[in-house]
């Protein structure tokens, strides 16, 4: 569990700098330059992510059951992860109504993904991993919306048909992951 926790501290920590230490972040960008900061950010992110994957895999070898989720939570998790994939696609497809309404669809996608997995899994490692991501996403979304209000940021422009693209891309990615990649990469078949 220590590798998982260290990975979460590194990964979530570097992704939280703008929220909790924006002044320090600005000083580092000034000191290292934008590319130097991006390099450091990327390195810490990759190391943190690798530790999360490794630590979660180790924790799954000696599971600690906290509760046994009912079977229906797996179906709900599948539906919620479909929504998360559409939101994730909307973050990258410019001009969607989804992005204009939510403003930060990737963060909402992380919240939805984490909640889905918390509902469907009752082991300690799952609660730690998905619980940390859920709390982080809630705090980051709140901070981002606060920055939007403070800057009086205008809503992004909407272009016709872009939501259809985001939904189709999200649905295709979800299907590929749910029916093939989840089992291959995580070792769990959602269906």
Brief synopsis:
With 191 residues, this protein is mainly α. The chain has helices spanning 2-20, 22-61, 72-92, 97-102, 105-120, 124-151, 162-186. The chain folds into 2 domains: 1-62; 65-191, no CATH class.
Strand percentage lies at under 5%
How far do the termini sit from each other? 28 Å
- Number-wise, the strands total 0
Cα-atom radius of gyration? 18 Å
Indicate the overall shape: globular
Provide tags for this entry.
single chain, 191 residues, mainly alpha, 2 domains, 81% helix
Protein architecture, described:
The protein is globular. It has 2 domains: 62 residues; 127 residues, no CATH class. The chain has 191 residues and is mainly alpha-helical. The two termini are 28 Å apart. Helices cover 81% and strands 0% of the residues.
List the helices and strands and how they pair.
Elements: H1 2-20, H2 22-61, H3 72-92, H4 97-102, H5 105-120, H6 124-151, H7 162-186
Helix pairs in contact: 1-2, 1-6, 3-5, 3-7, 5-6
């Amino acid at each position: 569990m220590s590798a998982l926790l260290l990975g979460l501290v590194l990964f979530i920590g570097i992704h939280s700098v703008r929220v909790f230490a924006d002044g320090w972040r600005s000083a580092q960008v000034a000191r290292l330059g934008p590319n130097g900061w991006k390099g450091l950010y990327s390195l810490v992110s990759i190391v943190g992510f690798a530790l999360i994957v490794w630590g979660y895999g180790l924790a799954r070898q000696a599971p600690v059951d906290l509760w046994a989720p009912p079977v229906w939570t797996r179906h709900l998790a599948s539906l919620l992860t479909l929504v998360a994939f559409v939101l994730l696609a909307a973050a990258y497809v410019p001009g969607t109504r989804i992005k204009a309404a939510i403003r930060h669809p990737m963060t909402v996608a992380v919240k939805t993904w984490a909640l889905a997995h918390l509902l469907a899994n009752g082991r300690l490692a799952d609660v730690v991993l998905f619980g940390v991501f859920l709390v982080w996403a809630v705090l980051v979304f709140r901070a981002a919306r606060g920055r939007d209000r403070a800057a009086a940021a205008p809503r992004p422009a909407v272009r016709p048909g872009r939501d259809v693209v985001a939904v189709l891309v999200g649905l295709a990615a979800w299907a590929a992951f749910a029916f093939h990649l989840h089992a291959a990469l995580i070792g769990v078949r959602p269906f």
